[in-house]
Amino acid sequence: MKKVVLYLSVSSSLIILGFYLFRWGLIDAFSVFLMPFLWLLTVGFFIVGLVLSIIGVFKNKYWKPLLIHLITILLLFLVPFNELSLKFDFLMKKEDRVEVISMISSGNLQPNVSHNKSLIKLPYKYNQLSSGGGEIVVERQGDAYSVLFFTLRGILDGFSGFIYSPDGLKPGKNDFGGDLKEIDKLNENWYFVVSY
Questions:
Q1: Transmembrane segments in this chain: where (predicted)?
Q2: How large is the average pLDDT for residues 30-36?
Q3: φ, ψ dihedrals at 22, nearest 5°
Q4: 144-172: buried (b, 16+ CB within 10 Å) or exposed (e) per residue?
Q5: Quick one: residue 187, left, alpha or beta (phi over 0 = left, psi -120 to 50 = alpha)?
Q6: Total domain count for the chain?
Q7: Which of 50, 51, 176, 196 could form a disulfide bond with 158, CB atoms 3.0-4.6 angstroms apart?
Q8: Are residues 166 and 147 in contact, defined by beta-carbon separation less than 8 angstroms?
Q9: Domain assignment of residue 151, given as a range
């Protein structure tokens, strides 16, 4: 029984940490509508493991599973998983995003979604660069384009994403048809934005 509780403790802790670390990818894969159910399943599994580890302490004086759960809970509160996953996404896909921007600048990639003149459906190779279907939004700025790559394409008007600003200027509050509540500079030409 001790080994079963230990395995349950380790697996439930790894699953909940993975859920928080890869949340953005999971939202893109499972949709915003299914995420609450996946979250409940993940948290429920973790709580079952936690309860069994507490029972193990009182019944068998076996502390390892409870210690694993307590460390996991500390990590969930202390580690900025959201920021880490966004930074990771930005750094790992930046080169490909720059490639897409140069394709737009050269005219090789143009708006191609019939119902919206600002949307570009990315070629399959670049589909993973923008969540919610592989579409990006472009806005003309003089001779260049500002480009929005979605990290979350929410319901109705809500979204978040990385904006490339060709002149490095901070995006306006109403750019890209949103009401930008958060605008954080990432580096010279890049911003992370949230609209809700």
A1: 6-26, 38-60, 66-84
A2: 84
A3: -110, 25
A4: ebbbbbbbbbbeeeebbbbbbbeeeeebe
A5: beta
A6: 2
A7: 196
A8: no
A9: 83-195
Q: And the tokens for 41? A: 């399943």
Tell me the mean pLDDT in the region 55-77. 94
Confirm if 147 and 100 have CB atoms less than 8 A apart: yes
What letter does residue 178 receive in the DSSP assignment?
A: S
- Specify whether the CB–CB gap between 170 and 183 falls below 8 A: yes
How distant, in Å, are the alpha carbons of 10, 111, 120 from that of 114? 49, 8, 10
Residues 6+ apart with CB under 8 A from 139: 118, 145, 146, 148, 175, 176
Pair (67, 46) in one structural domain: yes
DSSP code, position 31: -
> Phi, psi (5° rounding) for residue 47?
-65, -40
The domain boundary residue, chosen from 79, 113, 143: 79
CA distance 185 to 196: 18
Identify residue 1 by its one-letter amino acid code: M
3-state secondary structure at position 119? strand
In this predicted model, what pLDDT tens digit does every residue of 109-146 receive, in sequence order?
998 988 888 999 999 999 999 998 899 999 987 788 89
Question: Do 21 and 95 belong together in one domain?
Answer: no
pTM: 0.82
Residue owning tokens 């004086």 = 61
